[in-house]
Hints:
Chain A: Keywords: 3Fe-4S, 4Fe-4S, Cell membrane, Iron, Iron-sulfur, Membrane, Metal-binding, Oxidoreductase, Signal. Chain A: Its cofactor is [3Fe-4S] cluster; [4Fe-4S] cluster. Chain A: Its EC number is 1.12.99.6. Chain A: Heterodimer of a large and a small subunit. The structure holds 2 protein chains of 2 kinds. Chain A is built from 14 helices and 7 strands. Chain A is an alpha/beta fold. Chain A folds into 2 domains: 7-226 and 345-365, NADH:ubiquinone oxidoreductase-like, 20kDa subunit (Rossmann fold); 232-312, Cytochrome-c3 Hydrogenase, Chain A, domain 2, CATH 4.10.480.10. In chain A, helix 2 (18-31) crosses helix 3 (39-48) and helix 3 packs across helix 14. The longest helix of chain A is centred in the C-terminal third of the chain and has 34 residues, at 326-359. Chain B has a domain at 46-258 and 265-270 and 353-440 and 471-489: Cytochrome-c3 Hydrogenase, chain B (Orthogonal Bundle). Chain B is 40% helix and 15% strand. Chain B contains 18 helices and 14 strands. A 4-stranded antiparallel β-sheet of chain B has the order 1-2-3-4. Chain B has a 3-stranded antiparallel β-sheet with strand order 7-8-9, covered by helices on one side. In chain B, helix 4 runs antiparallel to helix 14, helix 6 (148-160) runs antiparallel to helix 8 (188-209) and helix 8 (188-209) runs antiparallel to helix 14 (365-389). Classes of the chains: A alpha/beta, B alpha+beta.
Amino acid sequence: MAGLETFYEVMRRQGITRRSFLKYCSLTAAALGLGPEFVPQIAHAMETKPRTPVLWLHGLECTCCSESFIRSAHPLAKDVVLSMISLDYDDTLMASAGHQAEAILQEVMEKYKGNYILAVEGNPPLNEDGMYCIIGGKPFLDQLRMVAKDAKAVISWGSCASHGCVQAARPNPTRATPVHEVITDKPIIKVPGCPPIAEVMTGVITYMLTFDRMPELDRQGRPKMFYSQRIHDKCYRRPHFDAGQFVESFDDEGARKGYCLYKVGCKGPTTYNACSTVRWNEGTSFPIQAGHGCIGCSEDGFWDKGSWYARLTDLHGVGFGIESTADRVGLGAAAAVGGAVALHAAVSALKRAQHKHGNGSNGSSHTGDAA
Amino acid sequence: MSDTGSSEGTARLVVGPFNRVEGDLEVRLELAQGRVAAAFVSSPLFRGFERILEGRDPRDALVIAPRICGICSVSQSHAAALALAGVQGLVPTDNGRVATNLIVATENVADHLTHFHVFFMPDFARAFYAERPWFPRVEARFKAAQGSAVRKALETRTTLLHVLGLLAGRWPHTLAIQPGGVTRGADARDKVRLAATLGAVRRALEEGLFGAKLERVAELSAREELDRWRAAGPEGDFRLFLDIAADLDLGRLGRAYDRYLSYGAYPGAEMPLYARGIFTPDGAGAVDLSAIAEDHTHARMEHRTHPHHPFDGSTLPDVEDETGYSWCKAPRLHGLPFETGAVARQMVDGQPLIRDIVQSEGGSVLARVVARLVETARTLIAMERWVHELTPGAPWCAQGTLPSHGRAAGLTEAARGALGHWLRVENGRIAGYQIIAPTTWNFSPRDAAGMPGPLEAALVGAPVRQGETTPVAVQHIVRSFDPCMVCTVH
């Protein structure tokens, strides 16, 4: 790893000013739920730490994850993250073509063996020996296995990589299969959503690159800092749910008054994601704000759970039902508090990570501890 | 991965995977005397959305179909909504129609900007062109992921997509478009924010891309005007492109059949902004939807005996099929391949500059790129008008009832061209769902008659220099179509 540039050097080379760099550090701290006192520590880590290469592969997918990613909240954040991952290998955006691109992939894999992060968008189809997704004449599955072999960690971007998504919906014609079912010997962080929110993607990757470790994950392998609360818990239409005021059809009186969308199919009560807090397109809005129910796109199996326009019928599992009494809704609120506790725990973990890196004076002695 | 092999004077070259195209693509070339003699275009990615849709609640097409593509998701959602409206005999409210136009147009303009800045121009910043007089300017502006114009364009696009945030909740994979309109009406405050957003986009394009008012670009009407713009027009990336195009003779590169198809874009109270129709060397005509059929002869699909109208179509992959070389079917109109996209829309609509270019020297890389830029200007101007037409408080979504049986086609225009969804409902469930996407038309394989698809035809004659494994001319031609491979096969 000797002689590898630091993140800061990479940014300088990309023409990012010191001022912008510090602004980025404070944005990052905010996105990760850290106070301003952590900004110098993040800056220090980025000035002394060698850059971690990221290889970004595309399997069977629709590229919505990349599309989301490249328009994250602050153009600067996007620029910085792009320069951090340096597009070592991303075949949608990269400048070179064909075999040159393949050569870059090989080069990065050899040079940074055991030290690069593999980010996967999409998933491998297993039917017919992988013939439904051929990249450079070979099944994507082969490429995925080859690149995963010497990666220190894998990021599963989006619902395809994390869970399978709609391309795995019945009858799953190609046997599209989530990454963790074919790569079983590497730490995998799942960032589900179709697509995931840009700020969640940049937040996760920034965390991993800055602190050289995985963020704290829940039992399903999702980063707790973004996936510990239900859409419903923080939905601005929640008071209407509690008051029993519902939209019955798009553009009815209830829709005009901004009532709850539960009866037109909203899956917010069973969906863990940050849409109702972080929102979309630079915090402009999110589907519920535009009058459409949540479709639950970050939940495993969201594609085969009955119509998106039919009301949820399995609310009991989440602690309260639609005909809830105040007591039962209170239980739901308690669950939300539980989520907040988990978030607090995640922030504490971050603080520990900060201390660790703040104390380490020699950035180049880093070895990957993402596992 | 590229490889060459030769026998008796002809050589073979496989080009791909292509980066900076949406999805995966491979092109097999046969070369003779330093030129492409034949091309075979292969789409190596198949997911089976049409099969996944069968048997479901028809309304769920609004969630599943857009996920065919993360870049054209709004167009897919619009086509699905139109097909569902068709089976219900539902007409969207005026407000719903105008809001839908804004939503669809936003994505289309965003795609045009991405194409020019991120996918197309960076090829001219390759070391291959280091000796050309325009190279330093292109390198500064368009080098992939670093060029100043690329960064600025991504910022502008992010700003533009606020329109989708405001009207549709999020992008990609917007949910707001419904058969009867949209799920959210714009209020007076939204209108102000929409106007401000479009104003910012207008300023950015007038400064960097065109160096001139959008109106001046939209009103270009003759080939000579383009030459004058190149010689003495305002500084901007448009002029830089014209410089490159003249130097490399892009007006004579990549001609296909000059046969164009458009379903018509952005419905109005009376007529669409861009007309529906076909335009061929014989002149303008109407689209006969019953004459559309998909041929599977060279697609790795079953049911190869005869072409099928999409209402009778099927999607059954056949991996044993050795004559097939793509997952892409070959759609034909009256048995002929048609090209679709911005150039087709502007040809059919009669935009005088684009007609002049195509009729004087044929459809080409230049024609396709200029059509996209002219259309960007025209569409943005229309979007500003639509914002004014939004009526706060007026109905934004009409209600309908799904019949247990019925069929309808949802036809719209994505950035890349004509997009159709053919829906059959039986017993209240989806019985058949066939999709023909723009790049399915443009990048289709050969048909039973051996007639190559538009890209396959456009590549014939392209120069390939000795030792070139990713020939630049081929790259320019492929990208001039702005392919969307994930839509192509779905």
